[in-house]
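pasting input
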Amino acid sequence: MIGEAAVGGGRRIATREEEEKTQMTIREVMEYVDGKVLIGEDRLDDRVDTACGSDLMSDVLAFVKEKAVLITGLINPHVVRTSEMLDITCIVFARGKIPTDEILEMADEVGITVISTPLTTYTACGELYIHGLPGSKRRKKAEDQ
Amino acid sequence: MAAQLEKVFNVEAGAYTTAGEASTTIKRTLKQLGASREVLRRVSVACYEVELNLVIHSMGGTLTLLVDPEKVTLISKDVGPGIPDIDKAMTEGFSTANEEARTLGFGAGMGLPNMKRNATDFDIQSEVGVGTTITMTFALE
């Protein structure tokens, strides 16, 4: 299976049942992406169920479920606002980017933990995936519903 | 969630910095009224999408929130320019968004289909030169 080969390293893909049980603390997320927490140090033991890596907030709004971590290279207040709408609990800014104080305050106000990682978006997502954090499930198209 | 409520928000064309503020207020209002997490998420996503559309595409308009014991209703009403081809606008990936919207991470042509997906009922009426009205309801049960 291509997916298994790509993930590699003798690790196997989790079954659907296992995926549904899989969770990770924000502290583990921070450790796996070699990141540092910028806001929300008191929320590191909160858990996330899934993750999404994207610079396109349109896609994030269309695909992400709650209790997710968002990995992005995009820095503007709409990343926080999009996350607030979706109940995303943690944002990881990739490639060592540090958001402005205004963005950090917005995140703190709505209880979103913010992490900065030196890794690229692709590598940060890969690290979380191989440590067991699944992506969002595929969804039906609007016209199928 | 039994309260009867009506709130109207003005949304300014091109106001990218404040885009989403009405949605934030609406989400907080519904949370205080005791809406379930699922309803909150659906309304919030659709509301944010429609508010962004008002900012990105319209010449300005209003966003109205109505709450009754059975449902939440969101009505977006603008003063133009109107959508020439609604079927095309409802297609995922079709977008007429400008560069500024795209720089912020929007304008991928997912907005209208995503509203339809999240709402229980979705209706769009548009006339070029007049304006667009989108009505969405969200069942509370």
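fyi Residues 87 and 144 of chain A are 25 Å apart (CA to CA).
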